[in-house]
Amino acid sequence: MSYLSGLMDYKSRRSFTSFVACCLGAGTIFMIYFNYERDPVRWPAPVQVFKMAPSAAAPEEPKWEDPGPYHVAYPRNYKIIMDDTQVCRSINPFVILAVPVGTGNVAARNDIRRTWGGETLVLGKMVRTLFFLGLPGGEGAEQQQEKLRQENQQHHDLIQSDFKDTYRNLTIKTMMMLEWLAANCDQVSYVMKIDSDMLLHVNNLIKLLLDPKTAKENYMTGLVWWHSPVLRNPFNKFYMPWSVIAESEYPPYPLGMGYIMSLDLPRKILGVSHQIKPIYIEDAYLGMCLKRLGISPTDPPDKDMFLVDPRHPLSDCSLSKVVATTTTSTAQMLSYWSRSQQPDTKCK
């Protein structure tokens, strides 16, 4: 085969492959549009679950409609079904560590309880850890629910609501967490939401919150994404079509791995959440609510306080600065926590 004919054959195959790929892509996008991009007037009228004041008549349960792949079914009349903690009742800590965690992930909860989640008095300030979860699903759900009940009888630190606990329902979990905090914790100064695979350096957290420059109201910080693009590739995990979000960027928001907020914000966010149809990307949704409130998140004083993808292992100097960092394993988290208990390391 000559060079010219070979080149032409290559181009023909490439053109044919491109044509097939385009057809498949167009078909996929058409099916997404046909199945999910429905007339927005068919979305049921939102019901604000969190009540700012008592009402004479309880809101009616909205008619169910599948929200599709980009939104979640919130607000709805979800209820707290497990909650016997003394936190925010007989105990009012300075800061609450709120950990969203899967129902079956008891190992992660126990690891946190025996490391940073077990720290209760730091620099003279009371700290308490609570785990937020939904309902188990699938085969063995009843047995798993009974195990959760027994676990809570021992630790009294589980807050459970009656939504299905899945990755796509993280926004629901976050909003139910805010509802619980707003309803119960008006004497608490701050809350830190932190994922269960993170290392939290509680001492550095308290130092940050005690800093005179740290705001006491309208305060939200973490690893802030200021220009996070709305992804338009239908094959991307976080794809969002134009019909859901027309802007090219999300409003600024702290990354969901771990963020801090003052305790006036849960009530304020809930107050505007019914105006914004919730997407399944929970941290971006909080950014949308903050924008509606006219509140901007705040960068931490040091960019090394929140690390999303650090080079492991962390040096003693890096560990001495960090508030929260992702980890790659339970063993690594345990090692970092043990090292964080040593006297402060001075960076050279």
TrEMBL record:
Keyword Phosphoprotein: no
Subcellular location: Golgi apparatus membrane
Family: Belongs to the glycosyltransferase 31 family.
GO CC term, one of those recorded: Golgi membrane
Keywords, alphabetical: Glycoprotein, Glycosyltransferase, Golgi apparatus, Lipid metabolism, Membrane, Signal-anchor, Transferase, Transmembrane, Transmembrane helix
Membrane spanning stretches: 16-36
Gene expressing this chain: LOC115415338
Pathway: Protein modification; protein glycosylation
An example Gene Ontology molecular-function term: N-acetyl-beta-D-glucosaminide beta-(1,3)-galactosyltransferase activity
Listed name of the protein: Hexosyltransferase
Protein's GO biological process: lipid metabolic process; protein O-linked glycosylation
Chain coiled-coil ranges: none
Topological category with respect to the lipid bilayer: Single-pass type II membrane protein
Enzyme Commission identifier(s): 2.4.1.-
Signal peptide: none
InterPro entries: Glyco_trans_31
